[in-house]
Amino acid sequence: MIQLFHVTKEYPGEPPALSDVTLQVDKGEFVFLTGPSGAGKSTLLRLIFCAEPPTTGQLLLFGRNVARVSPGEIPWVRRHIGVVFQDFKLLAERTIAENVALPLEVRSLPRREIRRKVQGLLRSVGLEHRADKFPPSLSGGEQQRVAVARALAADPALLLADEPTGNLDADRTLEVMELLAAANARGTTVVIATHDRSLLQRYTRRVVALERGRLVSDGDSIRQAAGG
Amino acid sequence: MLRRPAEALRRALTAMARSPYVTLTGTGTILVAVLSMGLVAAALGTAERLLQAWAGEVRLSVYLARGADLAGAASAVRALAPGRAVEAVPAAEALRRLAEGLGEEAGLLDGVGAEALPDCVEVAVPGISLEEARALALRLRQVPGVAEVDYGNAWLERLEAFLRRARVAGVALLLLLGLATAVLVSNTLRLAVYARREEIEIMKLVGATDAFVGAPFLLEGLLQGLLAGGVAAAALLGISAALGPRLAAALGPLAVQPLGAALPWPLLAGVVGGAAAIGLLASGLAILRFLRRA
User: What is the pTM assigned to this prediction?
Assistant: First the structure.
């Protein structure tokens, strides 16, 4: 699903954001990407959803070298990826239903099918009664559930989440994590960037740790907890 | 390729309704710009038509040598200027008209006899250009007995030169206004695009192509342009209807023109089409620059 070979990402005048990272994530995996702030977690996710190219090294996504993906092809690559952000990135002037419908509109699905899918998605995240509300009227946990519903709307093969619970309390964190785990159980590959150690302790999953742009460990969360 | 233009139109209309202030600012900018250009173009067109109407009053005077056959010369002139009003004016009649023209100063002609003036053939040449007048004068000079042909040479040449300069100045002014308009409208629509940068970013994040993102912006620009152009055309018609009678009162019957002559349909179509093109191009440039960076 995702293969990185000696990937380095540098920005002018700064130390490398990623340095010689080699990593493989297989189909159906659930992976925590962890490390302190500035470790390179978000940069790695940005490379994976083709927001920018690696400086050196090779990144293969769904078997394709992203260096050979033209700018015009990027939208089609992204249609296989759902993304969730810490700050939700919902459109404040669109209703919850309209926000969730965005990935389906982009694919030019018929409006009736979009309505049907959006209803199902909102039901799955427990927000069908809030469909006509606007994001600012929702709590942080509810907004993040909307963002997860939007990310899953088009049944992506890969779900990337950048600190998805960073703005949530413990109960809301659990709700969102359960949604992501459920998506993984249905076959979606999930990669979550987080520095929340409690998540790693709660979920026994693969943990890839980064520090100053370097991959420093790769194992399951029990071993990580034992090691650190 | 955009598969669903109707869907893009729906999204454009929804976006316009969601941001009425941004829509009004864009439309207002295009409106002010095309209305200014339309006013300049209409004023130049009207000025040129008025000057041409005045020029059309010019008459060619064919003066005969002493003893020449006036009736014969008039026939020859008629043959050389078919369709024109030709009048034979004997010297006595010319003197009478001159005295009449002098009014109270007619006493100046006391002691002047008809023999002081030559017989003359007058040719009315409404709407003639300088080139045509010059060519006709050359032909009339060949008539036997003709001493001189006067077609108001100096005055017509000054008028032609003035019209030429006015045309160049008008085109330069319109080009300058067009450039200023393009910059102004493009910057306004860039602000509108910038105000929706978050929406564009999220659209691209969920897999929207540049065409999918850009099409509603292009349609918004086109619709704003059409709206602004329609209002500008209506405003021009209103201004023309309001100013027409005042212009006629100030400049005399020559200024009285039907509305269609003062504002010909190509000018009105140009205002609407130009506004639509400006809206489309400016929004296209704005969204293109943004998508390149996004």
Answer: 0.69
